[in-house]
Amino acid sequence: MRSRRSLVTVLVSVFVLALIHPATAAAASPEPVQTSPVQTSSEPMRYVALGDSYTSGPLIPFQRLDRIGCLRSTNNYPSVVARRLGHTVLTDVSCAGADTTDVTRPQELALGHNPPQFDALRSDTDLVTIGIGGNDYGVFGSVIDTCPELRETDPTGSPCQEHFTVDGTDTLKAAIDRTRVDVETVLAGVRQRSPKATILLIGYPRIAPPSGTCPHILPFSDGDYAWLNDIEETLNAALATAAANSGTGTTFIDTYPASLGHDACSDHAWIQGRVLNPIGAAHYHPNHWGMEGVAEVILDHLAARGR
Fold it and tell me: What is the pLDDT of residues 228-272, one digit of tens each?
């Protein structure tokens, strides 16, 4: 998710983490890292992870130091998947704030830039995961920046949904339809660069509960909870369509069902609420348990395919 105000706060916390845990943070190297071998094949699996902050894992210990502004965790779901697969070379180029334009061009960061994420793809890449789309046209950022402030005007209504509805059209849903087209272009670019790869388009896990509210954690108006779920389901449906339109070898990985009961309001939440945890997760982002949960969904899919 892209939010300039929250990103500044997160960056400060990352520097604190680096100072507290210099020995355990990942080495400052953009080179791929091979995990401990478990599989029996002689050649390692070559795995490239692309995506935004829901992939990179802001504030989840321990943060890598090669691209500090990207806020990549050594315990994000690509890292968990690679470790569980074993005998895998992971190249993780995910970056906080990324949208679909950042896969083909450098992404400007507070300190330097992240090269185009497509640069990591090779003709011999075996597996590609992509978690992208939420930042396109500012959809997630608009929700996070706008809805909590509007709650004060109408705590029991749905002021955020009303704010984004213009002449009867939900402007965020309209933006998501354009995102689908952009994601399809990204998937075509991945296939062109890595023609033999298994491509997995990763959906977004549940943020809000299907019923009930927790305004101290998710400060949204009561009526906007259902709308927030609707927006996220619309985005995931658009991603599923993009994957289906991309042909054989590209699959949408739906993390929404598995995250039921693990929303930000739950006792075993996969998503951090409005208050960031400087040693756990950025606000409104997956925590360590969320990354483990998403990794399990991916691994189950790969196991079913015999990978």
Answer: 999 999 999 999 999 999 988 999 999 999 999 999 999 999 999
User: Would residue 285 show up in a list of annotated catalytic residues for this protein?
Assistant: yes
Which spans in 31-135 are helix H? 53-56, 77-85
**Nearest to 65, CA basis, from 27, 34, 91:** 27
Q: pLDDT per residue over 86-101, tens digit each?
A: 999 999 999 999 999 9
pTM of the complete model: 0.88
With 70 as the cut, is the pLDDT of residue 43 above it?
yes
143: DSSP letter: H
What Cα–Cα distance (Å) separates residue 300 from each residue in 200, 232, 255, 270?
Answer: 12, 23, 11, 18
State pLDDT tens for residues 276-300. Answer: 999 999 999 999 999 999 999 999 9
Domain 4-304 superfamily per CATH: SGNH hydrolase (3.40.50.1110)
Name the residue among 234, 210, 222 with its Cα closest to residue 159.
222
Q: Judge whether 51 and 202 are in contact, CB under 8 Å.
A: yes
List 3, 6, 13, 53, catalytic entry: 53
Q: Where exactly are the structural domains of the chain?
A: 4-304
Is the Cβ–Cβ distance between 138 and 170 less than 8 Å? no
29 among known catalytic residues: no
Query: Longest Cα pair distance anywhere in the chain, in angstroms?
Result: 62
Q: Which residue has the tokens 């590609």?
A: 128
Sign for the CA dihedral angle at 244, 48, 17, 139 comes to negative
